[in-house]
Every structure is written in structure tokens, then in C-alpha cells.
Design brief:
There is one protein chain. The chain is of the alpha/beta class. It has a single domain, classed as Vaccinia Virus protein VP39 (Rossmann fold, 3-Layer(aba) Sandwich). It is built from eleven helices and eight strands. An eight-stranded mixed β-sheet has the order 3-2-1-4-5-8-6-7, with helices on both faces. Helix 2 runs antiparallel to helix 3. The termini are far apart. It binds S-adenosylmethionine. The site of S-adenosylmethionine has 21 residues, from helix 4.
Length: about 325
């Protein structure tokens, strides 16, 4: 199954992702969200450009990918476990304790206007959840009122997320899951989201520079990028990989490849290069006995970043003081 998927993916890349673009088009046809109205026209135009250009090899667009097939195989094998709160993804379930308020407060502070309905504070926000897995983050964000598009490169994850979503009819129409990568989404969704959330994914992709560039291009000017990931330090190797995977078995062995970790300074540099100004960097700490995450100043293992895309039509989009009351502050 995995090798068939891998061959399929190579074919898709070889044909400039026409098949995948069609898959997005089919999903987009079912969307109600107003921002998706023109999706068909744009997709057909882009696909047409690709088809025409493929006959002239020198004009072929270069298709970069953020996919690491080995990483995807690992997640495909674990796909049945997403919603087991005591299973392999226990730490990710627990991470919602702090990452949901982090995203919620970041968005509300950035907008600067209190929500009309405190039970649906994110109403009106469109969020792209990159590497959405089983939907652990997408569902709670939708419960807060956001319209969420979850994308994941693993078909099995998308299916599990879609099935689980049906269990809560209140949010079923507010979340759409698509088997896609950030580069696929750029075909039709450039600058289309109020927020792009990338939680525990950056450490699994190839080519950080290209990945972050795509994420930033998907955000509207004035919108936010939220990233949680792992720093590339000796501490993250010993605690985040060796202890977590081999000794404490908090994660399946082989989940993380330390070489793919990224220091916060490098992440900030890439965000900045793509027009996104970093507003917050927090360290995160997991107490595996209490199964609780907390914010800490030390970013040497896990950390979170909130960056805001510069809106050149407005001056001084955000003041740092807005973040004083952020619930995620240490
Ligand atoms: C550790 S999981 C995090 C899932 C989810 N964000 C959460 O925190 O609950 C990483 C996810 O990223 C997905 N993924 C890895 N590489 C990807 C890529 N290049 N494009 C899209 N998704 C990717 C995997 O399939 C997996 O579901």
C-alpha cells in the first residue's frame, strides 16, 4: 500500500500535480465559504498553464516538494491512533491545553476588537491547519467559531479526520479536510487565510525554506502564522528524541529525525524573509507525569512562534502592547 502510494505521488509530481489540483477542485466545489467562490476558475486556468507549458520543457515550472516520503510512511502507519487520548498521540492531545489559547489569543489580539460572541471568539476567521493529522487541532479551532481547512499529505490521516468530524454535527460544516501539501494549496489559495497554523509539522518536512515560504504566501496580509516545533540543540536530541522515544516511550521510536529540527532564530529568519514579523517566541515544556504542557522561557527543546504578515496598506498593524494580556505569555 505504501509503495503504491509512493509511486502515485511520484506520478503526480511528474504531471505537475494536475491530479492533486483536481482533487482540491472537487473538494472546493463542495465548500460554502465565500472566499472559495472563484476556486474552479483559478484552478482550471492554472492547470491549463501547466498543461501548455509541459510541452515546452524549458518553460516547465519547477515543482519543489516539502514531502519526505519516509516521514509520511511513519504517519500512515499510525493513522488509526489519532483519537486515542492515551495512545501514541497523547502528548499532542495534551498540547491543545496551551496551543488552542495561543492561536485564539494571538488572533484576537492581532485583530484588536473583542469578539461579539464569547462562545465563538474565532467566528469570521479562516484558518489553514497544515499537517492536520487526525484533526486534533482543527476540531477545537472550529468549535471556537473558525472556518478551518485541514491539509495533510497522508490520505489515511485525512480519512480518519473526516470520519471523526462527523461525530460532531455542530462543526461538521466548519472544517474541510484535503489531502494536499502547502505547495498544492498555493495553486488556488495564495493570501487566502487569516491564519496558517503549523503545529508539530515543520520538523517532518524537507526544505524548511520552501515550506515556510509557502506557508507565508498562504496567509493574507495582516494575517498570522502560528508554528510549534522542536529546536535543534543537544538538549532536544537527548530529551526530545532519546528520552522521549527510547526511554519514556512518549512517542514511537523513530518519530523524529533530529536533523530536521529548526532553531527559532532560523525560523524567524525565514518568516522575516517572507514578510512575516515575529511577535512572540515561547518555550514549551511537557510534564509527562502530569500530562501537562506549560509555557517556559527556555526554547531549547519545544517552542512556539507567532508571526504576523506585513500589510503594506496599513502602517503599524500591531503594537506589541496588545500582547500584554495574552494568556500564553510566561
Ligand atoms: C506530528 S503530526 C502533527 C499533526 C497535527 N498538526 C497535530 O498537532 O495534531 C505531523 C503531521 O504532518 C503531516 N505531514 C508531514 N509532512 C507533511 C507535508 N510535507 N505536507 C503536509 N503534511 C505533512 C503528517 O502526515 C502528520 O499528520
Amino acid at each position: 500500500m505504501a509503495s503504491v502510494m509512493s509511486v502515485c505521488r511520484r506520478c503526480l509530481v511528474g504531471s505537475l500535480r494536475k491530479g492533486l489540483a483536481n482533487a482540491i477542485k472537487n473538494t472546493a466545489n463542495r465548500l460554502n465559504h465565500s472566499e472559495w467562490k472563484n476556486i474552479n476558475a483559478v484552478l482550471i486556468t492554472k492547470t491549463e498553464i501547466y498543461r501548455n507549458s509541459s510541452t515546452i520543457s524549458s518553460e516547465r515550472p519547477v515543482v519543489k516538494t516539502t514531502i519526505d516520503e519516509e516521514e509520511l510512511r511513519k504517519f500512515a502507519l499510525l493513522s488509526q491512533q489519532w483519537w486515542d487520548e492515551q495512545g501514541e498521540f497523547e502528548a499532542l492531545h495534551a498540547l491543545n491545553q496551551i496551543r488552542i489559547p495561543f492561536v485564539r489569543d494571538g488572533l484576537l489580539n492581532q485583530r484588536g476588537i473583542p469578539p461579539l460572541d464569547i462562545t465563538q471568539p474565532l467566528a469570521g476567521f479562516s484558518v489553514l491547519d497544515v499537517g492536520s493529522g487526525g484533526g486534533l487541532l482543527a476540531e477545537p479551532l472550529a468549535r471556537l467559531g473558525a472556518f478551518v481547512v485541514g491539509i495533510d499529505a497522508v490520505e489515511e490521516n485525512i480519512k480518519i479526520a473526516q470520519i471523526h468530524l462527523q461525530q460532531d454535527h455542530k462543526i461538521a460544516g466548519k472544517v474541510k479536510y484535503i489531502e494536499a501539501t502547502v505547495e498544492d494549496m498555493l495553486v488556488t489559495e495564495e493570501e487566502n487565510f487569516d491564519a496558517v497554523v503549523v503545529s508539530e509539522v515543520a520538523e517532518h518536512v524537507t526544505d524548511h525554506a520552501h515550506f515556510i515560504e509557502c506557508c507565508c504566501r498562504l496567509v493574507k496580509p495582516g494575517g498570522s502564522v502560528f508554528i510549534t516545533t522542536l529546536n535543534k540543540t543537544q538538549a532536544s536530541y537527548f530529551l526530545g528524541v532519546l528520552m522521549a522515544e527510547r526511554v519514556l516511550h512518549l512517542l514511537p521510536a523513530g518519530t523524529h529525525d533530529w536533523n530536521k529540527f529548526i532553531p527559532p532564530e532560523d525560523l524567524q529568519y525565514l518568516l522575516d524573509k517572507n514578510g512575516c514579523v515575529t511577535r512572540l517566541v515561547h518555550g514549551m515544556c511537557y510534564n509527562f507525569l502530569a500530562k501537562k504542557w506549560s509555557w517556559i522561557q527556555n526554547t531549547s527543546i519545544n517552542y512556539a512562534v507567532h508571526a504576523v504578515k506585513i500589510d503594506s496598506t496599513k502602517s503599524g498593524t500591531t503594537s506589541e502592547s496588545k500582547f500584554k494580556n495574552d494568556s500564553s505569555s510566561t
